[in-house]
Design brief:
7 strands
Length: 240
């Protein structure tokens, strides 16, 4: 049986750890040549909020891989704070990484990919439902969903598909940071926060990064040839 992504050449942002790193590894396991970028921990360095840096990393990745046909805009950060207590600087920082970074990545991909390309992004269930003390994060991820739906329509004549994945609870360092932030905001322990969060998951189990990466691999493959503009929930039924 042929590998699912044989012949694909992919760039993944935010690939130093977590979902991004798992996506690079899964793409390679499925036959793609894939390269990751991040501020640290990945093969290529890139600050996705820097327009020139994004252009440069696309050029470097295309040179290494002999071109690009698949791009995953995954880089993101999270912070927890009640909206009334949020500072403008911190709010903008989340939007800069989670929204502007995705915009710059997707714009560069839209300019470079040829017919048959795929552009994917990491949204979140916080881009479909509001959550207390996650105002900046929710705003950024709702906007990512909107960008995906818009770009899917714009690129349809070129047969470039665009979609995003909306994970819920995934065992990553970002999830650890979110839980620690909640604990600080609410004056409790991280253990209590995690117990409360896990009670919302029907299976009682968090996803692994690879379980999210597998969905990216499916969306990047020809098996998803008629899927564009969609947001795919990866949440064990938590938010349905």
């Amino acid at each position: 049986m042929a590998a699912l992504l044989a012949g694909r050449r992919a760039l993944v942002t935010g690939a130093g750890r977590g979902i991004g790193l798992a996506t690079v590894e899964r793409f390679r396991a499925e036959g793609a040549t894939a390269i990751g970028c991040d501020l640290d921990g990945a093969e290529l360095h890139c600050d996705v909020t820097d327009e020139a840096a994004v252009t440069a990393v696309f050029e470097a990745a295309a040179a290494r891989l002999g071109g690009l046909d698949t791009v995953v805009a995954n880089a993101g950060i999270v912070r927890t704070r009640a909206l009334a207590d949020e500072t403008l600087a911190d709010f903008r920082r989340v939007l800069d990484v989670n929204l502007v970074g995705v915009f710059l990545t997707m714009r560069e991909a839209a300019r470079r990919l040829e017919q048959g390309g795929v552009i994917l992004a990491t949204a979140s269930q916080a881009g479909r439902h509001g959550f207390a003390e996650l105002g900046a994060y929710c705003a950024s991820k709702f906007a990512v969903v909107g960008l995906v739906e818009t770009l899917a329509k714009e690129l349809a004549p070129r047969r470039i598909r665009v979609a995003c994945v909306a994970p819920a609870i995934v065992d990553t360092q970002m999830q650890d940071a979110l839980q620690e932030g909640y604990a600080l905001e609410r004056g409790t322990t991280r253990e209590r926060v995690r117990d409360g969060i896990m009670r919302t998951v029907p299976t009682g189990v968090a996803a692994t990064p690879d379980e999210v990466a597998r969905v990216f691999a499916f969306l990047a493959s020809d098996l998803a040839s008629y899927i564009s503009g969609a947001t795919i929930a990866v949440d064990a039924g938590e938010c349905t």
